Backbone:
């Protein structure tokens, strides 16, 4: 199923309505869709590098709006809607594990790391933020900053280096973003240890 979804999402890049589809995929990836918008975003930028930052803005805004929708699902309709979606994609166990050991501050940190690198999966953290009642203003700001950083960095890289960097983007960029996310976690955890606050709990 994942391969079919991936191929279908990739095929959208060749349509005249590709920009609309980018907004749709960026919106629904935050809570109900398995394939990240990056799959559609990269070939669109390669085919129209003059629109790279426009596409990044579209993806950032749509992803943030989708994040808000996922947050509301977690806050007000978890059992009825969010849980069945997570179960369908095999993410419900991940969610339950995170919910048991993640406090509000940990979830706030994961909003940044998932926005940058999908670690943990972005839909899981988005819904979790609503469940544990992370402040909505912080949630929105974190979506704009983290997801915007990812899309605009991708736009810059693809616009600057074109096809030469496509393989790196597809195979290595997630690892780099993941490494950045790990560093953020380590720095935050270190700061908490030094302050002896004990407010951060990691799973």
Residues:
């Amino acid at each position: 199923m994942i391969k079919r979804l991936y191929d279908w999402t990739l095929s959208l890049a060749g349509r005249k309505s590709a920009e609309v589809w980018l907004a749709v995929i960026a919106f629904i990836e935050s809570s109900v869709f398995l394939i990240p918008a990056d799959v559609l975003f990269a070939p669109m930028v390669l085919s129209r590098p003059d629109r790279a930052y426009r596409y990044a803005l579209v993806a950032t805004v749509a992803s943030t709006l989708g994040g808000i929708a996922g947050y509301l699902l977690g806050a007000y309709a978890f059992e009825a809607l969010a849980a069945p979606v997570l179960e369908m994609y095999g993410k419900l166990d991940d969610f339950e594990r995170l919910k048991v050991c993640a406090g509000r501050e940990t979830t706030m940190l994961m909003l940044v790391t998932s926005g940058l690198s999908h670690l943990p999966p972005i839909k899981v953290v988005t819904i979790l933020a609503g469940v544990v009642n992370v402040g909505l203003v912080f949630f929105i700001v974190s979506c704009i900053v983290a997801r915007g950083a990812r899309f605009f960095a991708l736009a810059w890289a693809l616009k600057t280096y074109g096809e030469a960097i496509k393989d790196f983007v597809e195979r290595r960029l997630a690892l780099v973003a993941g490494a950045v996310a790990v560093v953020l976690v380590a720095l935050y955890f270190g700061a908490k240890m030094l302050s002896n606050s004990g407010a951060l709990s990691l799973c």
Residues 2-195 form one domain. The first helix runs from residue 2 to 11. The radius of gyration is 17 Å. The chain has one domain: 2-195.
